[in-house]
Amino acid sequence: MRECSATSLYYLLLSFLLFSALLHRPTFAAKRSYVVYLGAHSHNFEASLIDLDQVKDGHYDFLGSCLGSKDKAKDAIFYSYTRHINGFAAILEDEEAAQIAKHPRVVSVFLNRGRKLHTTRSWDFMGLEDNGIISSSSIWKKARFGENTIIGNLDTGVWPESKSFSDDGMGVIPSKWKGVCQNGADASFRCNRKLIGARFFNKGYASMAGPLNSTFETPRDHEGHGSHTLSTAGGNFVSDASVFGYGNGTAKGGSPNARVAAYKVCFPPVNGNECFDADILAAFDMAIHDGVDVLSVSLGGDAVPFFNDSVAIGSFHAVKHGIVVVCSAGNSGPSDGTVSNVATWQITVGASTMDRQFPSYAVLGNNMRFKGESLSVKALPKNKLFPLISSVEAKATKADAIDAKLCKAGSLDPKKAKGKILVCLRGDNARVDKGQEAALAGAVGMILSNNEASGNEIIADPHVLPATHITYTDGLAVYRYLNSTKTPVAYITHPSTQLDTKPAPFMAAFSSKGPNTITPEILKPDITAPGVSIIAAYTESQGPTNEDFDTRRVQYNCVSGTSMSCPHVSGIVGLLKTLHPDWSPAAIRSAIMTTARTRDNEAKPMTNASHIKATPFSYGAGHVQPNRAMDPGLVYDLTTTDHLNFLCALGYTKSQIEKFSETPYACPSKNISLLDFNYPSITVPNLNGSVTVTRTVKNVGSPATYTSHVFKPAGVSVRVQPKSLKFKKIGEEKMFKVTFKSKMGRAVGEYVFGQLKWSDGKHNVRSPIVVKS
Description:
Keywords: Glycoprotein, Hydrolase, Protease, Serine protease, Signal. This protein is an alpha/beta fold.
């Protein structure tokens, strides 16, 4: 064997190509994994184990000649390709890889890069990676993937065996962690260096449900929701994750190197509710004690006064201890005024789409094709037409026609449905339940049509029969076809995975909207993030539909809701906590809000599910942009005292506030205006003539001068004073005033929207403006 230092002109070219690739390496990585490809093997496929061991030993000898010893080579090589492909994978310094590339035996040497695998496509969509490659400018690299940040999750628990919670590559548990692994009656439940803690809180639930058996005495997730949300926030990298082969790729959370902890507070529904205030407060209390940095809370109810809201109370105490609390906005859209979790100390997240779909086409007998979505495993014969009927035509004799149109339980007649494709309408009962009812009635397939409220929002579900979910407009066309011919027919194509779809994002119809019904002076939601067809870890206690009839089991599932968008932001917060440990929860929220975007991937204004221009009542400040959030330039900061003053302005008494804060407190002598609360958005819900609001911004970037730019709401004049702000150092604060004046002739009682932007040429610090006369 020639020594590793042997060279030729031909291999200088390979070395040059490798050097070019190395220009993109992160500066902090001393060693990285490489593949050294040596071509094909000379031995035949039936080579004995002895021959394969000799090949492996030859790899050790070869690399040993480069590294100085065979022992070093054995430590470095973690794969030896011994059967058809000849080569190995090893941990090498960049200079060592460049030297090996010069050897005449070597065909190529290349970085062991991550490939574009599409499970949590959302992180690619938000710019943290590009075609599977994570650039040095990504917040992932700069924040070391959220290293050692601790993310807690109030939810249905966790499935600890999921690969998303593997502790491979994790170091020792941070010393600040004080939590425990409370396995209760489940001896098989284990924590590790990734899933560092788990607790369950069920006494409040038991008070409503009655005595509980031992299956409730565990933090194990039997529902799937908690595993899904926790893995979205902080799950480890898992390759080859998919739902029945769809969306195959690498699953990962927003902070893949974070530690995670599960706080189980939700159980099977009792009177329609899964989570109860007593348990929620107990979990908040313990999570603060345990030492979490971020709390992800994908639960809530109707907006109620803060002191009657367990999530608001628990969140306040957490934020006071420097913990960032991220909450879901709710799934009660698209009606106005439905947003929940509206406290000023919470980050409230709406749900929008991303640029991945799972298309399945409904093809009619007149050759019209309608693009829907599905994750159906079963498929109809290719291009074979089946009779197509409205589910109303399959109505059982004693059933209600509306129930039949919605494909509700017991509403369909097997004699009428057998062998046909049914068209069912979305609404009331679960989408997958409609498919189950169609299947039970003997239907071969289902076309699920949106109702008007759902518009163009279509969701990929793991239906139990061949099915596709289509938009409201397309559904109308299908119903017209049914009425146009005596023998309507159709077929449904097998689903596939499609990327780079447009437009994206747009707001999900289910995402709850503002205005804030508790404090209309505060815009909620704050931000939007991907929440439609999100693939993440799941329980193996139930099937992907969570229905008793579903005996299938999956390790990863595709789920939609603001519950899914919330942990995306929690994961981003984990990165920011690692990158900026001295930032307050308010500063982190401000960074996320003021760097958001309000345009889609066609550079057009974001829309709602009906493709009508959306407003800040849907998306808050816009769609989150993690890479920009790490360097916002300016932030709108808040202290605990600011929150207490806010409560004082709402009319809470000194006694109430003192008990809430656990510190002596007196309302300021000067009257406080809620309009002056230092929030990253500006909302004037009752503009009568003119009004002036104040804000203060803190410089968290380099010294710079910022100039104001205003995009005025229709019918409202806006003046900013001063028009420019000069910052000489980090941490310096400047106050400015914004005066709004209603113009003559403008419509009264309507909300209008605009934007204030502070720019230094590098940073654009944007705040939505919401005004109602």
